[in-house]
Amino acid sequence: MANNTQFSKVAVDMSFLQLIWSAWFMSFVFAAYIILQRVVDNETVNEQSFLTFSYGPSKIFMLVIGIISVYALLTFYVKNGVTRKDYFKGAAVSSVVVSLVLMTTAGIIAAIEQLIDDDIVTASFAGPDASIVLTVLVFSINILASYAAGWLIGSGFYRFGGIGGMLYIFASILILSLLDFLWESELKEPLKFLLDISNHHGFSSLTSFILTAGLLAVTLWVIKLTTKRVQIKLK
User: Where are the transmembrane segments (predicted)?
Assistant: First the structure.
């Protein structure tokens, strides 16, 4: 029962803290979105929904707080009697909560936009006819994977230092590259200026979703092994 209480407390505490960070982040992203809508005279930009606009910055944000979750929070919780296992479980739950809240918030704003202006378009990884709910879920699992990639980097550097940490960076880059590959057919429009994509792999959205979930599970497993017996830095 005590372990369940610890795990729940970590999940709630980390969710609350990271949602505060997320609120500030979304405020800045929304402000940038409004400014660009008013200043930039470009049809693609002007017709882009907030959900599509916020997706890229959200991936970067989740990557960063994934790294921070190790250095800022692992030492704190273990020093206060929380086991590494409960930290891992709580952090995993909080990452899911933050991912869903971020993309749900963006999805609600996008839905309101589309009620006001039919020309606003939300790019969907699940196909052109996908509902806003399905689009939010697909976006959520993608930014969750970005969090996991950051968490992997943080755990690698925390345990092994510079050389070992560099290997974890390489692994995280590989994970993010695989994500881009899995969703490449849908990334052509919103992110075509960032990715050089020439071949269509032919994966269905369901297949991409399942493979992404599998990739996420493997990443979390590696993080769990890395943090399981890690020596806690007291400073």
Answer: 21-40, 60-78, 90-112, 132-153, 165-183, 203-223
